[in-house]
Design brief:
Layout lengths: L1 E3 L4 E6 L2 E6 L10 H14 L7 E6 L10 H5 L5 H4 L9 H7 L8 E5 L2 E3 L1 H6 L4 E4 L4 E3 L13 H4 L5 H10 L3 E2 H6 L5 E2 L3 H13 L3 H13 L5 H15 L3 H12 L7
Parallel strand pairs: 3-4, 4-5, 5-7, 6-8, 7-10
Antiparallel strand pairs: 1-2, 2-3, 8-9
Pathway: Lipid metabolism; fatty acid beta-oxidation
InterPro entries: ClpP/crotonase-like_dom_sf, Ech1-like, Enoyl-CoA_hyd/isom_CS, Enoyl-CoA_hydra/iso, Enoyl-CoA_hydra_C
Protein name: Enoyl-CoA hydratase
C-alpha cells in the first residue's frame, strides 16, 4: 500500500511495516500547516492498519525535519489557537505530533539525518528507537523565538537526561548526531540512518508480535513502579507468553532453523 496523505506526508505499508515520510525536501521538511495536518492524519491511519507491527519515521531529502516553518505558520495565524486546544484526553495537536505515534501500539523507529531541529527533534523523541547520522544536527530552537519546547517533551523526555534536555532548551545549542548519541538522545549511529531504520523495522517485524508488545510494556511501565512491582510485572508478562502459540512457533522455528511464521 502506498498512500499520499497530502502533498507533505506519504505512508507506505508492506510486510507488516509502515513508513511515514515527511516530504517537503525543498524546505528541509519544515513544519507548515499541511505537514502538521498530514502527520496527524498519518497517526490516525496507523491505528487502522491491520497487521501493523512496526513504524518507520523518516524525512525525504537532506533533512529529517527543520522544525516549525514560522513564516508559513503565521500565514494562517487564525489557526494558531487550535494548536493549543486540548482534546478529551488533555492532549493538544502539537503534543499529539509526538505522542500520537504511541497510539499505533507498535514500535516506532526514526531514521534521523540532516537538520533535526525544534519540533522535528520533539517529534523524533516520540519514537521508540532513534538512529542518528553522525553528522546530523540536533537542537531545540524554540528559545530563539522566546518560547519553550511544548510538543510533549515533558512526557517523551522522561527517560532521558533532564540536564541535557534543559541545556538544549535554554541555550538553543546545536549538537552533532555523534554528540547527541553520547548524550543519550539516540539509540545508535549509522551513516545510512534511513536504511538502518528500515532494516531494524524489518527485523522487529519478524519477531513474535506478542513478545514485542510485552517488552514495550515492560520498559514503558517499569520506571514508574517500585522494584518489587517491576519484578512482578516482568514475571506476569513472561507468564502470558510462555507456551502460547507465538512462543511455540518461535521455538519450533529456532529448532528447525527456519524463519518463524506469525499470523
Amino acid at each position: 500500500m502506498h498512500q499520499i496523505l497530502n502533498e507533505r506526508v506519504t505512508l507506505t505499508f508492506a510486510d507488516h511495516v509502515a513508513e511515514v515520510m515527511l516530504s517537503r525536501p525543498d524546505h528541509h521538511n519544515g513544519l507548515d500547516w499541511a505537514m502538521i495536518d498530514g502527520l496527524l492524519a498519518a497517526q490516525q491511519c496507523l491505528t487502522q492498519l491491520a497487521g501493523l507491527r512496526v513504524v518507520v519515521l523518516s524525512g525525504d531529502g537532506d533533512s529529517f525535519c527543520a522544525g516549525l516553518d514560522m513564516a508559513s505558520i503565521m500565514s494562517e495565524a487564525e489557526r494558531l489557537p487550535t494548536l493549543l486546544a486540548p482534546d478529551e484526553a488533555g492532549i493538544n495537536p502539537v503534543q499529539r505530533l509526538a505522542l500520537g505515534w504511541r497510539e499505533a501500539g507498535v514500535p516506532v523507529v526514526a531514521g534521523l539525518h540532516g537538520h533535526v531541529y525544534g519540533g522535528g527533534l520533539q517529534i523524533a523523541l516520540g519514537a521508540d528507537i532513534r538512529i542518528l547520522h553522525p553528522r546530523a544536527r540536533l537542537a531545540l530552537l524554540e528559545i530563539d523565538w522566546g518560547i519553550i519546547p511544548d510538543m510533549a517533551i515533558s512526557v517523551t523526555g522522561t527517560g532521558l537526561r533532564q540536564d541535557v534536555l534543559q541545556e538544549l532548551a535554554i541555550s538553543g545549542r546545536k549538537v552533532s548526531g555523534e554528540e547527541a548519541y553520547q548524550l543519550g538522545l539516540g539509540s545508535r549511529l549509522s551513516d545510512t540512518p534511513q536504511e538502518a531504520a528500515r532494516e531494524t523495522a524489518a527485523l522487529i517485524a519478524s519477531r513474535s508480535p506478542r513478545a514485542v508488545a510485552a517488552a514495550r510494556e515492560l520498559f514503558a511501565c517499569s520506571p514508574d513502579l517500585a522494584p518489587r512491582d517491576r519484578l512482578a510485572l516482568e514475571a506476569h508478562l513472561q507468564q502470558q507468553l510462555l507456551a502460547g502459540a507465538e512462543q511455540r512457533e518461535a521455538v519450533s522455528a529456532r529448532m528447525e532453523r527456519r524463519a518463524p511464521r506469525f499470523d
